[in-house]
Design brief:
Layout lengths: L8 H20 L13 H14 L6 E2 L2 E2 L6 H13 L4 H26 L2 H13 L1 H4 L9 H20 L3 H19 L2 H16 L9 H25 L3 H13 L3 H23 L13 H8 L2 H18 L13 H17 L3 H29 L10 H19 L3 H27 L4 H14 L4 E4 L6 H11 L4 E3 L9 E5 H7 L5 E3 L7 E4 L3
Parallel strand pairs: 3-4, 3-5
Antiparallel strand pairs: 1-2, 5-7, 6-7
Helix pairs in contact: 1-5, 1-18, 2-3, 2-20, 3-4, 4-5, 4-7, 5-15, 5-18, 7-8, 7-9, 8-9, 8-10, 9-14, 13-15, 14-15, 15-16, 16-17, 16-18, 17-18, 19-20
Length: about 525
């Protein structure tokens, strides 16, 4: 029944949008099911946002009541908005901004690519961004900084191009620097790097460099300076942190993963391994980029002004990460739409020209799809044998695997090469449904004792002062659950005599030295266990 399938342009449009809608539905299922110990950075973002609400201070981010300098506050404000909107400090509320900003990113991708290219390319680029392995099975269900940052930076990329093409240079610089200011308030110095490289790329390579020396450009810089000046002026006034410490922290956070810290040898190893790591992390769509080895396809891409801009911008901005040894794939999400625009355009050109390269690539993608389907079957039996699995039968996950098999068989028989890509996206989305429904609840049981002990300590001390003794530390996930349950900040504090109501979390050696009675135990991931005591 698939062999003669041929979608009209409108049918292709609605089918692709249906897949995109299904993908977001799959991402929302069990979004809050797993706890905050899955990723070390996620609970820190949750704690900082929660402490803003608990303290009523939305200017100075804090962690355990102390100024948190490592990241600016914009993501925290988004998270706070989600907490207040949903009336909950839940994991779901914390992660919802990830889904909302991912949707916004998709809309920017669609309108940019549809305007410059066509509907089909725009839809396929959206599907590639949503259904690559990195986003689909990790970044989309963790409340991190990277997707919101990617949205702002990619919007910057597109604003510069389209406003430049329209000759609206004053608007270009004002919008570019407004987006840069927002991106800076999300992740600090990388925003300035992206802005600088983007402006240089556009105005130099399109021979409009004189516009960089203009009053319009000065106005944009003044807007950026004004926004950051107002915020950091308020921050320095309210936090008690001196300007030198703040600047040193911002610079360190932005340079700690680069050659400055790791040296030449690690950098050289990274230079070689980086392209292969990116192909794997952003599979299966990333492998379409191999079509760039075809000279005719490269020439056709270069002749298109918008695709050429994507290529130049990708090279210019990617160099920063290519030369940084400790780069996580999530740092590259703003580059993914550029990359997929190039790769998918290459495939569409090859398919239109009936290139053997395109046919070979489809065979390769078919093999990758078969591996994903095989992984679904393996996962179905694996999670069904877990003691915490919600049923005694693998029937549920097997259904999704069977659905994916049917689509895979259809992919074999569909004649249209571009419709095969829709089938591949459908297989990935079915895999995410299976993952969301069955695997995420299983992950919720991983390291469950840490969450449970934090909740028990919170309930035991509710209504009473509770402190971390001195410099003792806990993993941020533990802090999140204690603060959420107690509705109070867990601060560090060295006690003074005469506070008999206060509880403290101390190390075991202190209990032994002072012969105190432990009233509870707190296992803290990555740190020593702490014990609940009242000091004499």
């Amino acid at each position: 029944m698939f062999k003669n399938l041929q979608l009209s342009e409108s049918q292709y449009f609605y089918t692709a949008w249906a897949l995109i809608l299904l993908c977001f539905i799959a991402m929302l299922i069990n979004l809050g099911a797993h706890h905050m110990f899955v990723h070390t950075d996620e609970p820190r973002r949750a704690v900082v946002a929660l402490e803003m609400i608990l303290s009523g201070n939305y200017v100075v981010p804090t962690l355990n009541g102390e100024p948190y300098l490592n990241k600016p506050p914009l993501l925290n404000w988004l998270t706070v908005s989600s907490y207040l909107l949903l009336g909950s400090y839940s994991e779901f509320a914390h992660r919802l901004p990830t889904i909302v900003t991912l949707l916004a990113l998709c809309l920017v991708i669609f309108f940019a690519n549809r305007t410059a290219l066509d509907n089909k390319t725009a839809l396929l680029v959206m599907l590639a961004v949503l259904t690559n392995g990195r986003v689909l099975f990790l970044d989309s269900f963790i409340g991190m900084i990277d997707i919101p940052f990617a949205l702002l930076v990619y919007a910057l990329f597109m604003a510069v191009y389209f406003l430049g093409q329209a000759g609206k240079y004053r608007t270009l610089f004002l919008i570019a620097y407004l987006l840069t200011a927002l991106a800076f308030l999300t992740k600090a110095l990388p925003a300035l790097v992206f802005c600088g490289f983007t402006l240089l790329t556009y105005f130099i390579f399109f021979d409009r460099w004189r516009r960089l020396i203009s009053l319009d450009h000065v106005l944009g810089i003044l807007l950026l300076t004004g926004i950051l000046g107002v915020y950091y002026g308020m921050y320095l006034h309210s936090s008690g942190v001196d300007a030198q410490t703040l600047l040193q922290t911002i610079f360190y956070e932005s340079s700690k993963r680069t050659v400055i810290r790791f040296g030449i040898l690690d950098t050289l190893i990274h230079l070689v391994s980086f392209p292969f790591n990116m192909l794997v992390n952003f599979a299966p769509w990333s492998f379409l980029a191999l079509l760039l080895f075809n000279r005719d396809i490269r020439k056709a891409l270069w002749d298109n002004r918008f695709i050429r801009y994507n290529m130049l911008l990708l090279v210019a901005n990617l160099l920063v990460y290519w030369t940084s040894p400790e780069v996580h794939p999530r740092y590259l999400l703003m580059h993914a739409p550029l990359f997929y625009t190039i790769a998918i355009s290459a495939f569409l050109i090859g398919a239109q020209n009936r290139s053997n390269w395109a046919r070979i690539m489809l065979i390769f993608l078919l093999a990758l799809s078969a591996l994903f389907v095989g992984g679904l079957y393996y996962g179905s039996f694996h999670i069904a044998n877990q003691p915490q699995f919600p049923t005694d039968s693998p029937l549920g996950p097997l259904i999704w695997a069977v659905f994916a098999t049917v689509v895979l068989v259809g992919m074999l028989r569909i004649q249209s090469q571009t419709e095969k890509l829709l089938a591949m996206a459908a297989i990935m989305i079915l895999a995410r449904f299976d993952y969301s429904i069955y695997m995420l609840p299983v992950r919720a049981h991983t390291q469950e004792p840490y969450r449970q002990q934090a909740v028990e300590i919170a309930h035991q001390t509710r209504g009473m002062p509770l402190y971390l003794y001195g410099s003792n530390s806990v993993q941020d996930g533990t802090t999140y659950y204690i603060e959420r349950e107690r509705n109070a900040i867990l601060r560090r504090h060295t006690p003074q005599p005469g506070d008999p109501q206060a509880y403290y979390l101390v190390r075991e050696d202190m209990i032994k030295q002072q012969k105190m009675q432990a009233l509870g135990r707190l296992s803290t991931l990555f740190h020593e266990d702490l014990f609940l005591v009242k000091l004499p």
